[in-house]
Amino acid sequence: MPRKSPEPLESAPLAYQNQDFLNSPDGRVLRMMAEYQEPMTRFRRERIQDTVVFFGSARFRALDVASHELELLDNTGSTKPAPAEEQPARPHEVESGEASVQKLRLAEAAVEMARYYEDARTLAGLVSKWAMTLPGRRHRYVITSGGGPGIMEAANRGAYEAGAKTIGLNIKLPFEQMPNPYITPDLNFEFHYFFMRKFWFAYLAKALVVFPGGFGTLDEMFELLTLAQTQKLAKRITVLIYGSSYWKSVINLDILSEKGAIAMKDRDLFQYVDTPEDAFQLLKAGLMDNDQQEAAYDREHADQSKGVPQAPAPSAQELLGPDIAKTR
To answer: Which tens digit of pLDDT belongs to each residue from 56-84?
Structure first.
C-alpha cells in the first residue's frame, strides 16, 4: 500500500526564536553570551565610560527616612517584609514597654542602618555632581548598584537626585524582587547568572564603596579585592570600606596580614572611611590619579573639549552600514 501523502508542514522556528532551545541546557552558552553582549550594547549607546560601584545591605529599607523608622526585609533582594518578630521595635512599642530585647536590639541596628542609607545617598550625590562637571564625550564615574532596595536604592537615589544617569544591575532570584525606582530606565539590567553580573560590576568600575551588608556584600567585596590583589584588573581601583566600627566587628582583616595569609602590601588595597565627605575626597583623589595616568590615551582618542552628546551612541551597523540583508 502506498503511504498517504503527508500534510504540508509549517515553517520551523528560527533557531534564535526557538524558546525551548534557548531555555535548554544546550542553549546556556547563548544565554551567557547575551548577558555579556546586550549590556555592552546598552553601555555603548548610553555613552558610559566607567563607574563607581556601591555595595551594601538590601534588607533594610527606609519607611520614613526622616524619622529613621525602618522595616527589615525577608531576604536579600526581597520585597516581602520579614516576620513581625524579626522587625525592629517601633516607637510606640518602646514607649509602652512591649518590645522584646531582640526587637530593641534590632531597633538600635535599624537606626544605625538608616544613617548608612543616608550616607550612601549623600555620597552618591556628591560623586555624581562632581562627575557631571568633568569634560569628555562619555559619562564618567556613573553610580552603579545591584539595583535593589536598601543601600543599593540609596546609591541610585543620590545619583538620581543629582540629575545624573545611574545603573542598576539586578539579579533574578527565586523570590519576588523589583528594581528600585531611581535607576535610569535605559540602564536597568536584569541578570540570571551571578557571575555575569559580577563581571559587569568589575569591568567598568574605577572605584568601589562597600557599605555594611551581609553574605552578598562580603562575597562581592572579596571578589573585587581578589581581582585587585592578583592584578587581574587592567586598571587601578579605589576601594573604600564604609563604616569602620561595623566592619571591624564583623571581620578582622588585619589578622590576615598578621598571620601571613595576605601580604602586608595587600592591606593597602582598601581604606576605611566613616563620613560621606571623607569618602568623597578619597574617591576624588583616587579617580583623578587614575585620570592623570590615562590622560595621554584620552587626548589621542577623544575630543575632551565638548560635553556628552544627548543622542545615543551609534551602533556598529549605523557606523559601518548594514552587514547582511534582513529576513522577513
So the answer is: 988 766 544 434 445 555 555 556 666 76
Domain ranges of the chain: 48-68+116-299
List CB contacts of 183: < 8 A, sequence separation 6 or more.
147, 156, 160, 166, 167, 168
Contact between 144 and 161 (Cβ < 8 Å):
no
Q: Which residues pair with 48 in a beta bridge?
A: 139
Provide the 3-class DSSP secondary structure of residue 132.
coil
- pLDDT tier at 132 (50, 70, 90 boundaries)? very high
> What residue type is 29 in one-letter code?
V
Q: What is the CA radius of gyration of the chain?
A: 24
Which residue, chain included where needed, has cell 524558546? 19
Predicted structure pTM score? 0.82
Owner of C-alpha cell 555592552: 40
Can you give the pLDDT at residue 58? 84
pLDDT confidence of residue 276? 97
Instruction: Identify the DSSP state of 191.
Output: E
Among 279, 254, 278, CA closest to 267: 254
Q: What is the mean pLDDT of residues 50-54?
A: 97
Q: How far apart are CA 88 and CA 100, in angstroms?
A: 10
φ and ψ of 49, to 5 deg: -95, -50
CATH C-level class of 48-68+116-299? alpha beta
CB 241 within 8 A of CB 247: yes
Cα–Cα distance for residue pair 282/38, rounded to 1 Å? 33
The helix/strand count (H/E) of the chain reads as 11, 9
